[in-house]
Amino acid sequence: MVSLSQENIQFLEQLKNEYASVTCMNVLSYVKDADLRELSFFSVETFYRLFISQILAEYKKVVYLDSDMLVLHDITPLYDTDMNGHPIAAVHDVVCAYLADHARELGLEMRNMFNAGVLVIDTEAYERQNIREAGLEALAADYRNERRKFIYVDQDVLNTTVYNDVEFIDDRWNFQWEFTWRLDGIYDGYREKYEQTSQDPWIIHYAGDRKPWVYPSLPFAAYFWDMVLETGITKKVVENSIRIERENKERLSCFRGFRFPYERVKPESRVAVYGAGNVGQDFVKQLDNTLYARLALWADMRYEEKPEDWNVEHPEQLAARGEEFDHVIIAIDDEKIASQAAEYLRQLGIPKDKLIWQNFRRCDYE
């Protein structure tokens, strides 16, 4: 369990003003009192969203916000959401390729799934429908499966247990920033809506594996740093970012991104990697650290933009040097774009049986 230091508790509670009070609660006792022996493999924090209606039972309605968020709008209208009898109000998740695949695993329709970073909860309806109990049972059942489906744990559980019983609210209440640099991953027909939301986000959700305190040059990171300056904690945030980066390097941080498809490649094979974006970089780093297979060639359409010491080459080299590798790993996480890349590589003359692509899993969830 991650505990707040007394220093941080004091800092947070000093943020109170004439409009709001701030109180840090130790909610561990609520979770400890529940019989979670079957679920001891999860961190305690995993269950907090499931226990909100019990922890804050004296309130008829509760607004839950993830900690990696920045509120830019008065949330009174959010709190005043008409629940229309539903236990939860939330924002639709971003409709994209990896969500479509994951929705199929869960047996859900992706267009009806929500992101659980922002929730309005009717505590009475939540308790009446036994959502906590149903969620805990679903987690325990999923863990007994040979291949676990709940990779987003409590978000997946909530989507499963309250499916089609959600009041959907304006997307601006939960703008997920991680798609601003991967717009192509959003399905046609939904991309325009996402771009419109980006023009006036009410709550920025710094979701995903990149955070503004580590990547200050990414879109919308400036909002975070402006707030850091306003609250006077710049030095602390910078020091913490440096510490996190050092710790990640010590843990071989390349294993915290996309997982190389080891099961599709024999040890000591010669492989070419097509794509030098996030996925390709993760794969190349893993090959360098594990020596599982030999990287024979790294190619990307935008090879000229890559650092010279990466030795990324034009994709036509894949056709010219085909005898140097056994497989071509298409290092792209979007199924539609990967399919287009596969067709392009086949037109170059790369045999279909040499091409490898799958829904690459993120190592964080393995």
Produce a short descriptive summary.
The protein is α/β, with parallel strands linked by helices. It contains 14 helices and 11 strands.
Characterization of this structure:
With 366 residues, the chain is α/β, with parallel strands linked by helices. Helix content is 34%, strand content 13%. Helix 12 links the parallel strand 8 (270-274) and strand 9.
Secondary structure blueprint with pairings:
Layout (H helix, E strand, L loop, with lengths): L5 H8 L14 H6 L18 H4 L5 E5 L3 E3 L4 H4 L8 E5 L4 H10 L7 E9 H6 L2 H13 L10 H8 L4 E3 L6 E2 L14 H8 L4 E3 L15 H11 L2 H17 L19 E5 L3 H13 L3 E6 L16 H5 L6 E4 L4 H13 L7 E2 L10
Parallel strand pairs: 3-5, 6-7, 8-9, 8-10, 10-11
Antiparallel strand pairs: 1-4, 2-7, 3-4
